[in-house]
Amino acid sequence: MIRKGTVAILLVSLAAAVFFAGCGGAPVDEAREEIVIAQGVDATTMDPHMHAETTTTNAITNMYDRLLVRDHDMDLQPQLALSVEPLDDLTWEVKLREGIEFHNGEPFNAETVKFNIERIIDPENQSPQIADLNAVEKVEVIDEYTAHIITYEPYPVMAGRLNLPMVPKDYILENGQEYFAQNPIGTGPYVFVSWTRDESIVFEANEDYWQGAPAIKKITIKPVPESSTRIAELQTGAVDLIVNVPPHQADVIDADPVTKIETVPSGRFIFISLNTQREGIMQDKKVRQALNHAVDIDTIIDTVLEGYGYKSTQPLTPLDFGYDDSIEGYEYNPEKARDLLAEAGYPDGISIELGSPSGRYVMDREVAEAVAGQLAEVGVEAELNVQEWGVYVGKVLEKEAEEAYLIGWGTALFDSDATLYPWFRTGMRFATYSDSQVDEYLDEARTVLDEEEREDLYHQALEIIMEDAPFILLYQQEDLYGLSADLQWEPRPDELIFVYDMEFGA
């Protein structure tokens, strides 16, 4: 049975007030009922279950509600689910809000929940999110508004996985998945209007939304790849909110009377993954440790990022369950880096390939260039290969990237399982590292419901991972947004942009 202190019970007050109730329905100036948002890239689909990109989530999130949703403190709150509670080690009971309809009038109920979860875990559908729910054996409909989720083994992060957008069963079965990906409907505060690829996505307010009509009546989301163009459009009033503001432009935006900057520590961290399974120098732990000692992260944050960032001490952020405050991370020590290279048999230095995207993360190319420059000071010649994001991420997913490549990572789960498992468990999607003891710790942590025991297992795994250094740790992002001066909105650590949470006004 479930022990005291288990993570499952972090939800128990879910029948409380609904998260989004704050801003919807507030009166606004008629002239400011439309918002235009610019981000770097377009969405890849309108289907929330068939992608794994934050940028796509942000583009489409306002038309969908979730079973559970995170508030600004990243605590789980009820939305379509009134409560989620464990009945035993393998069974989670989900009680649903009654009377909710999709935008076409289709009812939301327990059959919907069953369909959504089974849709993701069905291998034939090839959902990139299948690993998030592969602990689920089946979903049982108990009555119209009650479902039981049965897992193969105890799954302590089940509640966090139910931060899951809901899609309509009958509409998809009648029209097909490809049609739905182009013509979506949800239960959320905004209704899909149109999608012109690489140009705009348009939504209009759902005036019958169950939490009240939105204050902002129309959303247009534009992909604008160049940060300078996004800033110019913000300053001229062509857009109202932009993402990924370059740090050196923050003061300019904040000094303009018609614009302002909002910042928040991100749930994403940036690091350089080192492929320890590719034959060559990255298989030598001393080489990998040397690379960590060679990089002056504080200087990169102060200069390239102009102070907007936080040095990483481990491959997690302080927002994640399992983060270990006692870990100090690798110190900048170029002399030690040279000594370790010499001990590894490379007293005259080494050459490596270093991959980087351009424009996916704030100043990503510039950060990679700074890392390459610092590595050169200890005798490491880094050949920098900068690539367009679509090509780059494809190579990462196929494990065909360079032996060292810059990447960012953040999840909606805020739990070590969502980072350590895919990156450091042998054979997992992003793992180019393997250690049998780490595997044992991570596997056990996946099935332990006691929070203290889980945390201890993650700390033991981190101790080994930090020693093995299958990465160059860099920094936790601070996200910078540019806003119209009269837009009231507080950014979130998970990067989601909920327009229902916004209003225009002084």
Features:
4-stranded antiparallel β-sheet; Dipeptide-binding Protein, domain 1; alpha+beta; 506 residues; 2 domains; disordered N terminus; Dipeptide-binding Protein, domain 3; 23% strand; single chain
List the helices and strands and how they pair.
Layout: E1 34-39, H1 54-60, E2 68-70, E3 76-78, E4 81-86, E5 91-96, H2 110-121, E6 136-143, E7 146-151, H3 158-161, H4 169-175, H5 177-182, E8 190-196, E9 200-205, E10 218-223, H6 227-236, E11 241-242, H7 250-255, E12 259-274, H8 285-294, H9 297-303, E13 309-311, H10 334-343, E14 350-357, H11 364-376, E15 380-387, H12 389-397, E16 404-409, H13 417-424, H14 436-445, H15 451-468, E17 471-484, E18 487-488, E19 503-504
Parallel strand pairs: 1-10, 1-11, 14-15, 14-16
Antiparallel strand pairs: 2-3, 4-5, 5-7, 6-7, 8-9, 9-10, 11-17, 12-16, 12-17, 13-17, 18-19
Short structural description:
By secondary structure, the protein is α+β, with helices and mostly antiparallel strands. The protein has 15 helices and 19 strands.
Structure notes:
The chain has about 500 residues and is an alpha+beta fold. The chain has two domains: about 5-190 and about 485-505, Dipeptide-binding Protein, Domain 1 (Dipeptide-binding Protein, domain 1), CATH 3.90.76; about 265-480, Roll (Dipeptide-binding Protein, domain 3). It has 15 helices and 19 strands. It has helices at about 55-60, 110-120, 160, 170-175, 175-180, 225-235, 250-255, 285-295, 295-305, 335-345, 365-375, 390-395, 415-425, 435-445, 450-470, and strands spanning about 35-40, 70, 75-80, 80-85, 90-95, 135-145, 145-150, 190-195, 200-205, 220-225, 240, 260-275, 310, 350-355, 380-385, 405-410, 470-485, 485-490, 505. Strands 1, 8, 9, 10, 11, 12, 13, 14, 15, 16 and 17 form an eleven-stranded mixed sheet that branches. A four-stranded antiparallel sheet has the order 4-5-7-6, with helices on one face. A hairpin with a 2-residue loop joins strand 6 (about 135-145) and strand 7. Helix 14 packs antiparallel against helix 15 (about 450-470). The longest helix has 18 residues, at about 450-470. The protein is globular, with a radius of gyration of 23 Å. Mean pLDDT is about 95; it is low at about 1-30.
